[in-house]
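User: Hey, my collaborator sent me this sequence without any context and asked if I could get a structure. I don't really work with proteins. Can you help?
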Amino acid sequence: MDQETKLDICPKCNSTHVKTYTLPYYVENLQGIRIGINDCVIKTACYLCKEEVISIPDINGLVSAAAVARIMHSTKLNGAEIKFLRKAIKLPSKDFAKIMGIRPETVSRWEGSGEQQIGYSEEKIFRILVGNKLKNELQEDDKAPAVEYDHMSIIKMAINPIRPSGNAPLLKFARVKMKLKNQKIQDLWDELESRAA
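Assistant: No problem. I've predicted the 3D structure and written it out in structure-token form, which is a compact way to encode the shape of the chain:
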């Protein structure tokens, strides 16, 4: 059941017959990554024009947290996930191809409809690249401080090619309060227990 939090004004019809709720749980397809979000997504609904708006706080932080969480799961990456991860680190496909030592057309096939899958060695290199870009702890520029990353776990990872339903794993997140080095307490995204689809 939704928890009502406040009254608002509809952005579409300017009606005051609007309710804003915090949803207890919400699933979002975030550019190919399935995300379950606990207790922080805001839904605004207008009773007159039926307009509904969903608001997710700190979407950039959620993208970074989802990227780090996904690279730490051993299920093989699909094309949409590769594209999501590449975009999460703001890496153009031509630059990605150059770093990986492949042709741009290969990147397109990896990210496409499954015509060609990324190899296991390339996938591990890519996962580590994503992790190192987002978890730049040495320069104190950690984009997902509440989500754990360990490049050695990826090196040792046995990537599981089997997807029971063909879908990506469902990653679950909640906002947590955390104090970082010499900073005030912040609301950050933390991964909850996730599961394969």
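In plain terms: Helices lie at 59-71, 79-88, 93-100, 104-111, 120-134, 151-156. You can pass these tokens on to your collaborator as they are.
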